Amino acid sequence: MKSILLLLIGFTALALMSWKFPDNRWKVAKYKNYSLYYTSLDNQNKEAYLTLINNGLGSVKSFFNSPYRETFDVYVHANRHSLDSTWQKDWGMPDFKSECWMVASGVAKKFDMISPARWDSEACEHVYAQTIKTQQLITHELVHVFHGQRNGSPDFSTVEGLDWFVEGLATYASGQCDSLRIAEVKKAIAENKIPKGLDGFWSGKLKYGLSGSLVMFIDKRYGRAKLMELLPFTKREQVLASLNITEAALLDQWKGYIDSL
Fold first, then answer.
1. pLDDT of residue 246
2. Among 86, 118, 148, which residue terminates a domain?
3. Which pLDDT belongs to residue 24?
4. Among candidates 159, 136, 141, which has minimal Cα distance to 230?
5. Mean pLDDT calculated for residue range 52-69
6. What are the CA-CA distances from residue 173 to residues 20, 27, 202 (Å)?
7. In the prediction, which pLDDT does 11 show?
8. Range of the domain at 52
9. Measured over all CA atoms, what is the biggest interatomic distance in the chain, rounded to whole angstroms?
10. Which terminal residue of the chain, N or C, has fewer Cβ atoms less than 10 Å from its own Cβ?
């Protein structure tokens, strides 16, 4: 009788745990360019996410006029804890805790994101219902995947002095370098509040506008083919040498371009 009672208690405990903690084991669906990993919590969101991902893939391929070189994995995390645990492992940083605005990352073989439907509760600065911005963010990370598949450092871990290019490219190619950001950069130039060197571009409140507009200038000045030629580089000096320009001259010409917009 005692053993039966203990068994019943055990089953009851398992049932309660299953009710309190939904099945978070990964499900997988394979497609042409990627495999989608998600949990049962996102069964109802899967089709919407596929649309976001496929729209992003189409935009990236069209921008570069080139396909992805490899297949990759897309992980839709049910919550921030799941994403942080993954980043802690992937980045070798066991104590890492993400900021509230961090919701996704992309490298050559992997794209991780918190389930967009839960950004309102799991994040700040991002609203799933803002469909254009949500699509641009997904596309931004897919640009990183495309770039990583052509870069000498597929996860960008050994890139030196090129944060502005890595992030600026994703900002520009995803459509996030919009008129509002350009206006903010123009204002900063007029007020002489621009970083003195490239190392300062990916910092501060204007980092997306600064970095994105600089890559925009390179694209307009040198052409899309030259932009593609820059993708393998891991050092700032390689980029400047390919453009045949000094850092100071690049920034001066960029300022002139922004002023002309």
1. 98
2. 148
3. 59
4. 159
5. 98
6. 42, 31, 16
7. 40
8. 27-148
9. 86
10. N
